[in-house]
Amino acid sequence: MKKRSILLVMALVLMLTIATACGGNTATTTTLETGATNEAGNTIVTAADTVAAVDDEDVHIVDLRTWENYSAGRLKNSEWVPIFPMEDETLPGEMETYAKAHLMDGKKIYLVCNSGASGAKKATEVLTGAGIDPALIYTVEGGAKALGEIKDALKTDRTEDAIDWQYVSGADALKALEDGSAQIVDVRDDETYKAGHLKGSKQVALKEIESPEAQTAMYNLAETELTKDKPVYLLCYSGNKCAKTAISVMKDAGYDTNNVFIIKDGAKDPDIAGALVTE
């Protein structure tokens, strides 16, 4: 009798195992691959494939999020073209203008929104309305949330962006300052600026180059105190990372990077060092 009971229990366990293996009532997870279509009807690219494409010259990575979210962590070489907040009725028009100026080159476009849903769907509508082939538009599946799960994918370091950095000598920068043909922005910290700076220069502290707050301050200065139709010369400690960060931020603000210059060697340049004043 005991042996028969054991056999019945074993048979029951086997039946449950078979039912589970065949699916039963258990939920299954489907992982979409690049090129598949999601529930919103958008062609997707996986988060992993998006990260692998950050240096691909045939791909535009377009970030649709608010500045607050974007500046807190972005993919290398991203282009910031916000569709959020979606209640802002001016953003679709601005996106269409950007698309016609920068995205009509036949390259693939990977759209990064918060979760890979509503924002990407809206942006796809705007881009196709602007005349871009929908076959070139991909939604990053899972959006920034999925990208954030990949180690070091979202960064605040902008110094490795694929920008053709432009340089100007200290002597030429001083001539431009004197005749008013360029705008000078000093991106050194507040104390260093007070200890010696170029007369008439504007200043924003970008010593902490990965700080979203510092980058936001640079963006606000570019939006409110500078003009896009006059060259901008950037002065930093040695003509490297702080100035490069500023240029990347200014690109997001709509500046032509061919019209923004780093003063070579920064404050270490002899001509610049001899012209620094305290006011």
Describe the protein's architecture and organization.
With 279 residues, this protein is α/β, with parallel strands linked by helices. It folds into two domains: 44-147, Rhodanese-like domain (Oxidized Rhodanese, domain 1); 166-275, 3-Layer(aba) Sandwich (Oxidized Rhodanese, domain 1), CATH 3.40.250. Helix content is 38%, strand content 13%. It is built from eleven helices and ten strands. A five-stranded parallel sheet has the order 1-5-4-2-3. Helix 4 (91-102) packs across helix 5. The longest helix has 20 residues, at 2-21. The termini are far apart. The relative contact order is 0.11.
Give structural attributes.
279 residues, alpha/beta, Oxidized Rhodanese, domain 1, 2 domains, five-stranded parallel sheet, 11 helices, 10 strands, disordered N terminus
Following the backbone from N to C, one meets helices and strands in this order, namely HEHEHEHEHEHEHEHEHEHEH
Question: Using only CA atoms, what is the Rg?
Answer: 26 Å
What strand line-up does the widest sheet have? 1-5-4-2-3
Shape: elongated
Largest beta-sheet details: 5 strands, parallel
What is this structure's SSE topology?
Layout (H helix, E strand, L loop, with lengths): L1 H20 L22 E2 L1 H6 L6 E5 L3 H5 L7 E2 L10 H12 L5 E5 L5 H12 L7 E4 L2 H5 L18 E3 L1 H10 L3 E4 L3 H6 L6 E2 L8 H13 L7 E4 L5 H12 L7 E4 L6 H6 L4
Parallel strand pairs: 1-5, 2-3, 2-4, 4-5, 6-10, 7-8, 7-9, 9-10
